Request: fold
Amino acid sequence: MNQRTNLPEDMRCVVLIGIDFDGPSHEVGRGIAPLGKHSWGNYSARCGVPRHMDMLDGHGIKGTFFVPGYDAERHPDTIARVDQRNFEVAAHGYLHEAWELGLEEEEALLRKTDRILRDVIGKPVLGWRSPSGRKSDRTMAVLKSMGYIYDSSDKDYDRPYRLRFGKGPDDVIVELPNNTYSLDDFPFYKFSHTPPSEVLGQWKSEFDAIYGHDRFFVMSLHPRAGWGSGTPSRTRALSDLITYMKGHDGVQFMDYRTFAQWCQQHRDNLEEVSFA
Reply:
C-alpha cells in the first residue's frame, strides 16, 4: 500500500454525509412490531428524513440516504422525494439484517432491495452500506454485477481506497470506510445519552483533526427518534457542525456517488488492498 491517498489541493477536505434511513425495518427484521415504544423507526419517514433534507438544502449541500428495501416498500413516496430533491439513494439491506446470511439468501436480498429502490427512483443504485457490518468477497461480486461502484461498510482505514475482492481485472470496488463510533450519532444517543451540544463539540474536534491530516470526513447518521438525529435539537447540532466546516477553506461536500466516481476517474490516487 502507498502511504497516503492523494487528493488535489482544491479538495482540502472531502465531507460525505451519509444518512441511514433505518425505519421500521430495524424492528421488523428483529421480529419486533414497530409500535409503541418500538415505533421510533416510523419517525424517519414522517419527520427525520424531511427535516434532514430541509437542513441540507438550507446549506446547499448534498447527502446520501442509505435505505433498506423494506422501508422503501413502506414509504415509497418519501424515498421518491429524496431522489426528486437531488439527494442520492443507496442500498442498506432489506430488513436491516442482523443475522448471519447464507450466500443464496444474501444475494436474493441484495437483488430484491436493488429492484425495489430502482423501481421507486427510476434510476440505477450505485452504492451500498452493510446494515450490520457483515460482508464477504461474494457480497462485493454481487454488488459489482448489479453495477454498484462503491461500498461504505468497512471501518479499517481513515481514507478511501480500492478494494480488490477477486482475481479478475474488474474485481475492484471503491471502499469509502465509515467510522461508526466517533462520527456516528448512534453510540452517543443510544448508549451514553450524550446531549447534542456535547456531541457537536466531539464532532468539531474530529473535524479539526481530520482537516489537518487525512482530509476525509465521513458521517453516519440516522433520522430516527430515540437514538437518531432526526429530532429538532439533534438536527440543529448537525446543522451547526456543517456551518463550522463550511467556515474552513477547501471543504467540499459531496454525496457518496459523486466522490466514488471521482475515485474511479483518479484510480492512481488511491491505495489498493485485497481480500486475500
The first strand starts at residue 13 and ends at 20.
